[in-house]
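Notebook entry, structure prediction.
Reason for the run: the old model in the group folder had no record of what sequence produced it. Starting over properly, with the input documented here first.
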Amino acid sequence: MTEPSPTSGPLFPRDRFWHPPAYTPGYKTSMTRAPSRPLVATNSTLSEETGPVFGHDMLGEQDNNLILNFTGQPAIGERIIVHGRVLDQSGRPVPNVLIEIWQANAGGRYRHKKDGYLAPLDPNFGGCGRTITDEHGRYEFLTVRPGAYPWPNGVNDWRPMHIHFGIFGSGFGQRLITQMYFEGDPLIPRCPIVRTIPSQEAIDSLVAPLDMNAALPMDALAYKFDIVLRGRRQTMFENRLEGL
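New structure, fully documented this time:
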């Protein structure tokens, strides 16, 4: 008998003991975003579970190469490889999953009109990429290490170096969002956003260890970031939306 796809079926409810509280005054933005009334859970519809879907033939040859995919000329910064696997709660690989990433450049600045940080823009770095997991659930990106940057949360708050991940299920209504941090970054425990997470185990699930076995000599260091979609080892997701 054929097993059901790990990304099919009804959406899964959020585990609120694992997720940060919605209202965390140390993270200033949460004070205005937190709901003021009791939450109402609604069931998913067929359209949310099955579509719209992403056409795999829309991927370009350089979509997972953020060093070259903006202008074709190399971006400035420390070259790194970010790789890993997408797994279900039983450790089984999840193939054909669309992964999108976006990040600041090597100086800590995003290519966004509202980013006013003083670091310069890199004319050859767009800051986003995408790829599809293979039959073993594996993915890989070539990029530059993003810089840390200040943000107006407190008097002198800084975001650690990080890369945003978006993972899609069987339709765009099934999307999980998270951030990957880098092993050894001293800003991780100082970040007000990270400090909203009540579990050290959940925080650790967001930190990618250095992987010298996948590094390219004289070229790029590598960091391994496995993404677990369900179960007790589930990666900490910002939205942890029901569905994957």
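Summary: Confidence is low (pLDDT under 50) at residues 1-7.
The old model has been moved to the deprecated folder.
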